[in-house]
């Protein structure tokens, strides 16, 4: 029973990590597309 909770915890963390990274990357691309001067990638 303990191993089951452990695996569920690991999979939840993996899903949260993937979602967080994808949301952060999408926000980064959106900001870079809307206002490229805010991020210094346009130069």
What would you say this structure looks like, in words?
With 43 residues, the protein is mainly alpha-helical. The protein contains one helix and no strands. It has one helix spanning 2-34. The N and C termini lie far apart (55 Å). The mean pLDDT is 84.
The tally of strands reads 0
Largest sheet: none
Shape, per Cα inertia axes: rod-shaped
Structure classification: mainly alpha
Rounded to the nearest angstrom, the distance between the terminal CA atoms is 55 Å
Can you give the helix content as a percent range?
Answer: over 70%
* Range of strand content: under 5%
In N-to-C order, the SSE pattern is H
Low-confidence blocks of residues? none
Our Rg estimate from Cα atoms comes to 17 Å
With helices defined by DSSP (H or I, 4 residues minimum), what is the helix count? Answer: 1
Supply the key terms.
single chain, 43 residues, mainly alpha, 1 helix, 77% helix, rod-shaped
Secondary-structure topology with pairs:
Elements: H1 2-34
Give a quick precis of the structure.
With 43 residues, the protein is mainly α. 77% of the residues lie in helices and 0% in strands.
